[in-house]
Structures are given as C-alpha cells and as structure tokens.
C-alpha cells in the first residue's frame, strides 16, 4: 500500500493553496508560514494524544524529546531522527538526514529558497506535539544540503 | 534510546501513517471553513484541490499499479474501487447501482478513513466534508481522457449508514485537445 | 450522587463534568476539586521513588466514609476523576481501570476531531455516549 503518498500529495496541495502561485512579499510569506505551521500544530496535538495513549508517563523533558525523535517521527515519516543533540539548557537539535518532505525537491540552490514552505507544517507538528505534552517551545528548521534538515527546538521556560 | 513502550507493530504503524493523513485533511477542512464564508465555497475549494491532486496522482497510480488503459467504464469502476482506493486509502468500496445505460455507478464505502474522529458541528450542515475525493476522481480520470461527474449522495457524517459516491460518465476527451481549463 | 465523572484540563479547569446526582452538584464539584491536589502530588512524585511504574492510572486517590475518588492522568496532563459511592462495593479496581481506559480512548478521539478546539469544554455525542454507558453500568 502506498500509504505515505496521500499525505505527501495533500501536504503539497496545502502548500500550494496557502502560498498560491505568485511570489508575494515577505510579510505575506511570513503570514502564510504561520498559517501552515498552525495547521501542523493542531495535527501534532491530536497525533501525540493518540501516540501516548498506551505509554507510561514521561520522566522528564529529555524523555519527551526522545519520544518525539523515535516514536513520533516514525509515526510521521517511518524513520527515526538520525541525530539528537542538546546543550542541556533547553535547546535541542533534531537532524533528519533524508527528510521526506524535501526529497522531491531537486538539490539545486534555487530550490533552497523554497524549502521553508515545506518545513513549516512539520515545525508545527513538533511544536503541537510538545505543547500537548506540556512542553512549550519554538521550533524552527533549516536546510543546508538537501534533503538533510535540522529542526531546532527551543524550550520556553514558564 | 531507552524507551520500550509505544512501539507499534507494522500494522499499527500503517494505521498511524494514515492518521497523519486523516488529521491533516481535518486541519485543511477547518482552515477552509475559516477562510471562506460558507460551506458551498468550502465544498468548491475542496473539489478544486482534489482535482489538482488527482491530475498528479494518476501518474503515481499508473506507475505503481502498472495498469493499462481500461476498456470501458465498468473496468474503470473496478480499478478505482479495488486498486486505487485500496492502494491509497486502505479500503475497498463496493461498486453498485449501475444505471441501465452503464454510464453511472456508485462507490459504497462502509468506512471512510477521512472522517474517523470527525463530528460535524451544527453550523456546517451543508458542508460536504470529504468533497476532496470527488475532485481527485474527476482530476485523475480527466488525465486518462474521461470526463466524469462525481458527487456524494450519502454520508455517514450526516447519519447515513454508508458513504456513497455517485459517478457519472460524461464523455471521452479527445487526446489532442488540452484537458480541462482549471 | 452515586457516581460522577470529571475531565479536568492541564490548567485545572473542568472540561467535562457529569454526575448522577443524589446529593448536590456543588458538592461533587468540590470533591473533584479537592482530589486535584492529590493528583498533583502523585504526578510530581514521579522519579522520586524507586520502582515507580509511572502508570497513567493513579488508583484510589482518597476514600471518605461516603465515597471513593479514583484518578487517572494522560500524558497531555489531562486528568480524569471518577467518584463512586462507598456503598458501591461491587466495583473492582480493574473495572475502574477499564472505565478510565474507555474515557481516555474516547477523549483521544475528541482531540482528533478537527472541529474540536483543544482546551475547550468537551462537546461530543460519542463522548456523552460513553459516559452515559458508565452511568448506567455503575449507577
């Protein structure tokens, strides 16, 4: 069964719908990124609720992050995060060396500008999942070499 | 990684990946409900987005299934139900209610994965929640030179026992003409 | 009341409250509210004691002469509280457990309903149905 295809097609179409065909200004782009991110946020909230239904309670923040890297990522993309680093002061860097939602973009430099559009939803997924587990954060993503991608999670201390 | 619990079997992973799709679709529908004033506009937009997906999906489908050109509408109906739905949504609708002329049939879904968890609020009584599917079918078939009309006639979200998608063959599109204008 | 069920948000406000009242509704609210302190205590004890199972089911929170209060907490820090009459001795621990599990499953579906805003009171026919079933079963 081509079970990852429906999501990929839908995700592309959502990007297409929100960003439109034309190149808009920076302010507009920012608003659109926020829109896609917040859709991801809501999906992340729901998914993590299902995913943690059978698991025992988390010990601490690191325990939660490991779950995101392993179980949550596998649920989303059928693979785990390849590398998790932390400065032990609330910053975590999650690296996916072959990020599924970028793999269809070509490696050319001109496509690098397009990458943020394709990362916003996933940033939202992670932020939504963490938020629902009681961890407030800011999640950003960057691409250096396609299709490798780093997600940075900054925990917001209350 | 120290955590032992929560590792799904293969089957459960499959189900989970479809949950990502189902929930993302839900987020899209609710976003459209915010973006547009009324349900009719949302239905239209869902159909349009489905169409865009359909015209791209068909290539993926033909590549994966290695199915050749269908001889007639009946064969097309079987391929849609038994191969396409199964492949992408993991369900196999039944093909029934053929019109005497053989140009219309229904796809009956006992279980529509798009609406798992969905409870429609009262203020959306004309929303066709799964309307994306109509667009997908229309778009995909257009790329194989078939113009069809697709609509929901029953919906479990509305309290019907099953979900029924009605498909009507309109015409064969000449290959040398540009298909569609959307 | 003979039985009452409450769902409490992470921030400790009620998302859902229902009781079969034989006494005042207010007293039920009060009981639930009091139980939250015990829940917090149990949650924050995580990791402090050896051999801690970190189960979602928190067990009997406290008994009084009139009723028993049971608690359960999801990983999203939403709390479920079930209050039953002390005279109801037919309910066993594993039955309470399975009631919580049913509530949790149904709550998860509510969280996945795209029209539900997480943090809003639960308005769901499916969830109502599950709760009603429990009221009949235990009442």
Automatic annotation (TrEMBL), chain A:
Q: Where in the cell is it found?
A: Endoplasmic reticulum; Golgi apparatus, cis-Golgi network
Which function does this protein serve? Component of a transport protein particle (TRAPP) complex that may function in specific stages of inter-organelle traffic. Specifically involved in the early development of neural circuitry, likely by controlling the frequency and amplitude of intracellular calcium transients implicated in the regulation of neuron differentiation and survival.
Q: What is its main location?
A: endoplasmic reticulum
Gene name of the encoded protein: trappc6b
Q: What is this protein called?
A: Trafficking protein particle complex subunit 6B
Query: One GO biological process from the UniProt record?
Result: endoplasmic reticulum to Golgi vesicle-mediated transport
Q: Which GO terms describe its cellular component?
A: cis-Golgi network; endoplasmic reticulum; trans-Golgi network; TRAPP complex
Q: Which family does it belong to?
A: Belongs to the TRAPP small subunits family. BET3 subfamily.
Instruction: Identify the InterPro entries for this entry.
Output: NO_sig/Golgi_transp_ligand-bd (IPR024096), TRAPP_component (IPR007194), TRAPPC6/Trs33 (IPR037992)
Q: Looking at the keywords, is rRNA-binding present?
A: no
Residues in coiled coil: none
Indicate whether Endoplasmic reticulum appears among the record's keywords: yes
* Originating organism: Gouania willdenowi (Blunt-snouted clingfish)
Task: Alphabetically list the UniProt keywords.
Answer: Endoplasmic reticulum, Golgi apparatus, Neurogenesis
Automatic annotation (TrEMBL), chain B:
Q: Which PANTHER family match?
A: TRAFFICKING PROTEIN PARTICLE COMPLEX SUBUNIT 3
Q: What is its main location?
A: endoplasmic reticulum
The subunit structure is: Homodimer.
Set out the biological process GO terms recorded for this chain's protein. Answer: Golgi vesicle transport
Q: Name one GO cellular component term.
A: TRAPP complex
Q: Where are the transmembrane segments?
A: none
Biological function: May play a role in vesicular transport from endoplasmic reticulum to Golgi.
Instruction: Show the SUPFAM superfamilies listed in the entry.
Output: Ligand-binding domain in the NO signalling and Golgi transport (SSF111126)
Alphabetized, the UniProt keywords read: Endoplasmic reticulum, ER-Golgi transport, Golgi apparatus, Lipoprotein, Palmitate, Transport
Which source organism does the UniProt entry give? Gouania willdenowi (Blunt-snouted clingfish)
The UniProt family comment states: Belongs to the TRAPP small subunits family. BET3 subfamily.
| Pfam families reported in the protein's UniProt record | TRAPP
The record's subcellular location field reads: Endoplasmic reticulum; Golgi apparatus, cis-Golgi network
* Protein name per UniProt: Trafficking protein particle complex subunit
- What would be the name of the gene that encodes this protein? trappc3
Automatic annotation (TrEMBL), chain C:
From the UniProt record, give one GO term of the biological process aspect.
endoplasmic reticulum to Golgi vesicle-mediated transport
Per the record, the domain of life is Eukaryota
What are the coiled-coil residue ranges? none
**Cellular compartments annotated:** Cytoplasm, Perinuclear region
Residues annotated as signal peptide: none
Q: What is its main location?
A: cytoplasm
One Pfam entry name: Sedlin_N
**Annotated GO CC locations:** perinuclear region of cytoplasm
Keywords assigned by UniProt, alphabetized: ER-Golgi transport, Transport
Q: Which PANTHER family match?
A: TRAFFICKING PROTEIN PARTICLE COMPLEX SUBUNIT 2
What is stated as this protein's family in its record? Belongs to the TRAPP small subunits family. Sedlin subfamily.
Supply the name of the protein.
Trafficking protein particle complex subunit 2-like protein
